[in-house]
Structures are given as structure tokens and as C-alpha cells.
């Protein structure tokens, strides 16, 4: 951690002396100009960013740090043609040990957290905005309950209740022999102490309880590493028309994450307790059942409902203050809520494990009503969320919005569907593994079976969509060939070169098709979810007469799809973890899939505490502290230079600077998704008003992009009072054929190597000259027309 971050108080930026040489410990001499580089997706090394094999860390740690060339520290007063360059390396915040790929298993949590930040922009609609956040938090809570309920279904129902209670299944899986009741044990053997149904269930409940503990631990550990880094303190942002990213407490979600972690942990433990208590309570409530246990079950049920209501109440409270650094700690709530749920779980285990003569495990546990209720609740929450989002969008419509305000509800629906498919596929896969093809066990609840059967239709829709996109890309590529030919008049035609350039441009345009892909997936998910729910409800009754033949055909199709979906889930899980491990180890693989992961983990955990941690809660304060301390110490000119996702971090850090410092820096972005991705999908925080406010607040801003870039694009700042921000599009490749300057074929750069383009140095010099117009500077060249 930087020394600046270790000092207490609210105005630390004015007292920090600046970075020290990592070798000598001396303060460097003041510089006149500094360029602070922030890399993008996939990460890099400081040697690559600075173009020098000899670099020195001047501040930071092994996770994130600022580096300089050793030459710049050794001779700080030598004359320079270019500004001193520093590289902020943050790639270790999102990569590292390949075991972190297991975070991908919690992808539904990250997706629903993403939906929280995708609301339309609506100034002044504070109550409606809070209602939007409340609905997303409730949907996130149902996902936690769904995941734990699915694990309970596997451990309690399939393993402890069905398989351990059936002699043929126990013979297939000898490790369950100690759970087998006496009637099902091997001849001459006696049932163990664990052979009673309630005790088997209590023992199996350790699995979902341990999973809950693991999620709590991971959330707490990552909270200590990310959310606990306190941003720089400054006064409230005076401009309400800007982005909320300028508020002092936006990147300090310590209190909210702690509250949500306590609530979701308690909800998960209560889910385990409910799954454990329900079968025992059903047995006790029958006619002639034990009166004492019946009373205990009713009291326990009432306690579980009261505690569940308390959990929902905590989730409904916002618990997040962005207008200031909220350093309050709800210690009593954070401790009492999960500990109370754990105590109820232990009481439930004692109650369920009580000996009950005549209790036998037959059939399946009553899980259908619970899963149907969860699925229905998620559907209603998504519908309500869509209504709120559409209302907000109609107040301030934006034609560039990704899905006309419905991006957040669509993503929330996909998160719920992903959770349902993973739950159904897991249950069906374990059931197939326990039972094989003998059909000895009743299997998982019908709804989970039907959810597993939706996987093949979804894949079929994705294949059709991919085929259509391939056709459209080929058509666009043919159109781009004519444009490429007209861009290079007088040069000899090279059909292969033209075709390659056109293909890259056509592939880059696929990013703009993302709203269509999400719309098709959301519509397909909604339709198949309705079919799955209706199929689970109608399977209970078998029609007679002429309808029987149609019913048999549909049943055969459904069973085939269920079996295929079960195997696809197992294959998908293996591929998922394999790709994730490769993305953490291989930089090229990370660049391929990293943009989606980095977008999801850029945002604070405001909806789901078990989502992967937010790296920006460490990176943004780092950048803010570095810029504020350097400008205060030297009074020099600073260019904040961000590539790809680094440009988003740069913009977020610029917003967090005090207004006096923000007006003294220049912002240079290239390959930036600020408007193309973030502006369209997160309009409340990166929409036109927010980017226009950033343009007004910083001293100057330049943006470089290419048509061949699949991620970056123009920022389209709607401000006529200042010079245009967008410069370009840049020529790519730099030369069509062989030239004296490029005797070898110039590569098609796409999203990479913006600094290799001469326009980069010209734009940087232009921004530096605009920072101090009273100082002599290079004459800026005229910009290319947009």
C-alpha cells in the first residue's frame, strides 16, 4: 500500500510528499511533464508499457504498483523531448493463481450484480432508482437461495434420502453403506447410528452448510483486499448532472458488502435449515404423530420465518451512502444475523435427528413447491424490474441505449436463468451418476429436470444466431472491400490485403450486435422458462384418450432433452473451469474473454456479496492518490493515458479527483469502450450527460480509435463549447502496401499498439500544449475529419 493510504484523516492528499525511489529511498526531483499510463484488458508488464527492460517500482506493492524507467530516476533533470512516463500495472487484481478460475462457478452472482448498474439515467427520480436497486437485490437474494437449495437437493435428497435409503443404490456406492438403514443393509449387517432418515439428512446438511461457509470466507477475504482500501476524501461533488462515479463514497462499499454478506449468509443457512426441517415436520404433522415434536416443529418453523423476514428487511435497506465515505460498521447486525441463522440450523439438526419410529425414506423430498416458488418469484421480480426500468428510460430516452432501458432486466433474467440451468443440470447429472440407467431412484424434482432439458434448445438458438451473425459479417466484409479500395487511390490493388482488412473491420463491428444477442437470449430464456414451469406442473397428471399419444411423444422428447442437458452441464462445467484456468495463465486467452470478465468485476458488489470482487475499489484510489500527490508536489502538467479498460479506470479516477486537481490534468484515451460499451449498457454512469460533465471538468481530453477495433470507439461527447474529443478514426494498417517508410507489410493492429501510431505522439503533445497555453509548445497539427 502507498504511504499516502496509511495516513489517517480526510485531507491526506495535501500532506503526501510523493513517491520514493525504490532503490535509494530519495525523493525524485520535480518534473515538468508526466504521462501516467494505464493498461487495459489482459494485462502487461511495466517493461512492455515503458519500452525499457530496466524499470523500478516507485510506489505500490506486488498486487498493483506504479513503475518508471530506471533511467528517469537516475537522471531526473536531463533535458527531455517527451514527458516522463509512469506505468500503473493492475493486472494482478484480476489474474494470478489459476485456482481463481473457480470464481467462474459464481458467474450468476456477477451477472445479477452487473444488472444493478445497468439502470437507465433518470435525474431526480431517487425513489424510483432506489426501487430499481431493491428489486435487483431481491433477485440476487433468490439466486443465493437457489444455489444452496440445489446443493441441498443433491446432498440431502438424492444422496442421503433416495440413494442411501435404497439397497441397490447403496450396493453401487459402497461409501454410503454406513448410512443405509437396517432393512436396506447387506444381509447380517446392522444399521448404524446414522441410518435413521433424520440423522442422514442432518449429516448431509454439512455439505451446503460448508459451501455457505466457504462463500462467506471468500467474500470476507476479498473484502479485506479490495473494499477496505479507502479512497481519497474530498467534498461532495457539486454538479448533480455528472456521474455518480464522482461521489466520494462510490468506491467504498465496505458497509454495504458487510451487510449483504451477513444477509446472504443467513439466507443460505436458513435454506439449509428449511430443507432439513421440512421432511421431519411433514412426518410429525401426520395424524397420530408425536405431539411434542409437532409443537417443536411449529415453533422452529415460526422462528425460521421470523429470521427470514429479518434477512429480507436487511436486504431491502439500501445501506449505502455514496455522497460521503461511510465508515460506519454494523457490527451487531453483521454478527447477529448469520450467527442466529446458524443457531437455528443447529436446533433444526437436533430436531431432525430425533428418533422417530416408523419413519422411512421413500420417494423424493418435497422440493417441487420450493423450486417452483423460487422460479415464480424470480419471474415476477424481473417483470417488475422491467417496468421500473422502462419508466426511467421514458423520462430521459437515449437512442444509444443498448436495449431501450431494458438491458438491466434482460441481464437479471439471464442471471436467474443461468442459476436455474446450473441448478437443474447439477441435480440431473448427480442423479444420473447415482442411478445410472436403471431408473431405481425417483430422481430430482420435476422442475429441475425440466430446467436441465432447456439447455439443448438454448444451444440450438445460439447456433442459429451465430450462423446469422456469420452471414451478416460476410455481407459486411464484402461491403468493406469497396471502402478499403477507395481509401487507397493510386496504389496497386492487392485482393488478399483488401480482404484481410475488410474482414477485420467486419469482425470488429460484431460488438455493436451485442444488444441483439442479449435480446434473443432473454426472449428465449423467458419462453423456455415458462415452458419448463408449465411442463413441471402438467407432468403430474397423465391425460387419457387421444391426448395420450401426443403426451407420450412430448414426454419422449423431454426425456431425451433432459438426458442431453445433463451431459452438457457436466461438459460445460469442465470447459468453463478449463477456459478460466487458461485465461488466468495465458495472456492471449485472457484478452479474448477478459473484456467481459473485467466489465463484470469493474463494478462494486452492490447487489450480491458473493460475486467476484471489484478490482476498481483498489485501482481507482491508487490512481487518484498518485495524480493528486504528484500535481500538488510538482505543479507540473499531467496526461492520464488509458488504453481499453484502462481508459475506464482513468475516467473513474479523474472523476474522483478534487475539482481543483481535475481541472489541471489532460485525459488521453485510446481503444476506449467508454461510450461503445459502458455508455450504452450503463447509461446512468457513463451516458452522454456524464461524459459531457467529465469533458468540462478535465482540462482537455483526446480520444483515439480505429474502425478495426472491436472494443474501442468514439466517445461522442455532446459538447459544442470545447474542441472535439474524438480524433480519427485512425488509419489501420498504417500502410496498405510496401512504402519507403514501411518496406515490410504493416500489420493490422486492431485493438493493440496505439502508441505505435504517429497520431498518438501528436495527440499527447497537443494535450500538453493545451494544459498550459501560456507556455510555448509544439504547434498542433490539424485533426483528421470525423
From TrEMBL:
Entry keyword set: Membrane, Transmembrane, Transmembrane helix
Stretches that traverse the bilayer: 131-151, 201-218, 262-283, 295-316, 336-354, 374-393, 405-427, 447-471, 514-537, 564-581
Looking at the record, which segments are called Disordered?
1-30
Question: Does the keyword Signal feature in the UniProt annotation?
Answer: no
**UniProt-listed InterPro entries:** AB_hydrolase_fold (IPR029058)
What is this protein identified as?
A: Integral membrane protein
Amino acid at each position: 500500500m502507498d504511504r499516502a493510504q496509511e495516513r489517517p484523516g480526510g485531507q491526506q492528499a495535501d500532506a503526501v510528499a510523493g513517491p520514493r525511489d525504490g532503490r535509494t529511498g530519495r525523493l525524485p526531483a520535480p518534473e515538468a511533464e508526466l504521462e501516467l499510463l494505464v493498461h487495459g484488458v489482459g494485462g502487461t508488464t511495466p517493461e512492455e508499457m515503458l519500452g525499457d527492460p530496466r524499470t523500478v517500482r516507485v510506489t505500490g506493492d506486488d498486487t498493483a504498483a506504479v513503475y518508471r524507467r530506471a533511467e528517469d530516476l537516475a537522471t531526473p533533470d536531463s533535458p527531455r523531448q517527451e514527458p516522463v512516463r509512469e506505468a500503473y500495472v493492475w493486472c494482478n487484481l484480476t489474474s494470478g493463481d489459476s485456482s481463481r478460475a473457480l470464481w467462474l462457478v459464481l458467474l450468476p452472482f456477477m451477472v445479477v450484480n452487473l444488472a444493478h448498474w445497468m439502470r437507465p439515467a433518470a435525474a431526480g427520480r431517487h425513489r424510483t432508482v432506489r426501487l430499481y436497486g431493491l428489486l435487483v437485490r431481491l433477485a440476487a437474494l433468490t439466486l443465493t437461495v437457489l444455489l444452496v437449495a440445489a446443493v441441498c437437493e443433491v446432498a440431502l435428497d438424492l444422496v442421503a434420502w433416495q440413494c442411501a435409503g435404497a439397497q441397490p443404490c447403496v450396493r453401487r456406492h459402497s461409501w454410503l453403506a454406513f448410512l443405509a438403514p437396517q432393512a436396506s443393509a447387506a444381509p447380517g449387517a446392522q444399521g448404524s447410528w446414522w441410518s435413521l432418515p433424520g440423522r442422514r439428512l442432518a449429516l448431509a446438511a454439512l455439505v451446503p452448510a460448508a459451501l455457505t461457509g466457504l462463500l462467506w470466507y471468500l467474500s470476507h477475504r476479498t473484502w479485506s483486499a479490495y473494499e477496505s482500501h479507502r479512497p481519497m476524501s474530498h467534498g461532495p461533488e457539486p454538479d448533480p448532472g455528472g456521474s455518480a462515479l464522482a461521489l466520494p463514497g462510490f468506491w467504498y462499499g465496505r458497509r454495504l458488502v458487510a451487510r449483504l454478506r451477513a444477509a446472504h449468509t443467513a439466507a443460505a443457512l436458513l435454506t439449509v435449515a428449511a430443507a432439513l426441517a421440512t421432511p421431519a415436520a411433514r412426518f410429525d404433522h401426520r395424524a397420530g404423530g408425536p405431539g411434542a415434536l409437532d409443537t417443536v416443529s411449529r415453533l422452529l418453523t415460526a422462528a425460521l420465518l421470523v429470521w427470514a423476514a429479518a434477512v429480507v428487511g436487511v436486504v431491502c435497506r439500501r445501506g449505502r451512502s455514496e455522497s460521503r465515505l461511510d465508515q460506519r460498521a454494523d457490527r451487531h447486525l453483521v454478527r447477529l444475523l448469520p450467527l442466529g441463522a446458524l443457531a437455528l440450523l443447529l436446533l433444526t439438526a437436533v430436531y431432525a435427528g430425533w428418533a422417530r419410529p416408523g419413519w422411512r425414506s421413500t420417494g423424493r423430498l418435497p422440493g417441487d413447491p420450493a423450486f417452483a416458488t423460487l422460479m415464480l418469484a424470480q419471474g415476477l421480480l424481473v417483470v417488475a424490474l422491467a417496468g421500473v426500468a422502462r419508466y426511467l428510460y421514458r423520462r430521459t430516452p437515449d437512442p444509444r441505449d443498448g436495449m431501450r432501458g431494458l438491458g438491466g432486466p434482460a441481464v437479471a433474467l439471464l442471471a436467474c436463468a443461468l442459476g436455474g440451468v446450473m441448478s437443474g443440470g447439477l441435480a440431473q447429472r448427480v442423479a444420473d451418476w447415482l442411478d445410472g440407467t436403471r431408473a431405481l431412484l425417483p430422481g430430482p424434482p420435476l422442475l429441475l429436470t425440466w430446467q436441465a432439458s432447456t439447455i439443448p434448445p438454448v444451444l440450438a438458438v445460439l447456433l442459429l444466431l451465430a450462423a446469422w451473425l456469420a452471414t451478416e459479417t460476410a455481407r459486411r466484409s464484402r461491403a468493406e472491400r469497396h471502402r478499403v479500395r477507395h481509401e487507397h487511390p493510386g496504389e496497386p490493388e492487392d485482393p488478399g490485403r483488401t480482404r484481410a482488412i475488410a474482414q477485420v473491420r467486419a469482425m470488429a463491428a460484431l460488438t455493436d450486435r451485442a444488444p441483439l444477442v442479449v435480446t434473443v437470449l432473454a426472449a428465449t430464456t423467458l419462453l423456455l422458462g415458462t415452458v419448463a414451469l408449465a411442463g413441471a406442473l402438467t407432468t403430474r397428471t397423465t391425460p387419457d384418450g387421444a391426448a395420450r399419444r401426443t403426451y407420450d411423444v412430448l414426454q419422449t422428447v423431454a426425456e431425451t432433452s433432459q438426458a442431453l442437458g445433463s451431459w452438457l452441464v457436466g461438459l460445460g462445467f469442465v470447459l468453463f473451469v478449463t477456459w478460466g484456468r487458461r485465461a488466468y495463465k495465458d495472456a492471449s486467452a485472457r484478452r479474448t474473454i477478459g473484456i467481459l470478465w473485467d466489465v463484470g468485476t469493474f463494478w462494486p458488489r452492490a447487489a450480491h456479496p458473493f460475486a467476484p470482487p471489484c478490482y476498481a475499489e483498489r485501482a481507482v484510489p491508487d490512481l487518484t492518490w498518485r495524480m493528486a500527490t504528484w500535481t500538488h508536489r510538482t505543479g507540473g502538467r499531467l496526461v492520464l493515458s488509458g488504453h481499453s479498460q484502462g481508459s475506464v479506470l482513468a475516467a473513474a479516477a479523474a472523476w474522483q479527483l478534487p475539482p481543483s486537481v481535475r481541472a489541471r490534468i489532460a485525459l488521453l484515451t485510446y481503444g476506449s469502450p467508454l461510450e461503445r460499451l459502458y455508455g450504452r449498457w450503463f447509461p446512468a454512469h457513463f451516458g452522454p450527460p456524464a461524459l459531457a460533465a467529465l469533458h468540462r471538468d478535465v482540462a482537455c481530453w483526446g480520444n483515439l480509435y480505429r474502425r478495426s477495433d472491436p472494443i474501442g470507439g468514439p466517445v461522442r461527447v455532446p459538447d459544442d463549447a470545447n474542441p472535439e474529443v474524438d480524433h480519427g478514426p485512425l488509419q489501420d494498417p498504417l500502410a496498405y502496401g510496401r512504402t519507403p517508410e514501411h518496406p515490410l507489410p504493416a500489420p493490422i493492429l486492431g485493438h493493440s499498439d496505439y502508441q505505435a501510431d504517429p497520431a498518438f505522439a501528436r495527440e499527447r503533445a497537443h494535450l500538453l500544449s493545451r494544459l498550459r497555453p501560456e507556455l510555448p509548445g509544439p504547434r498542433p497539427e490539424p485533426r483528421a475529419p470525423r
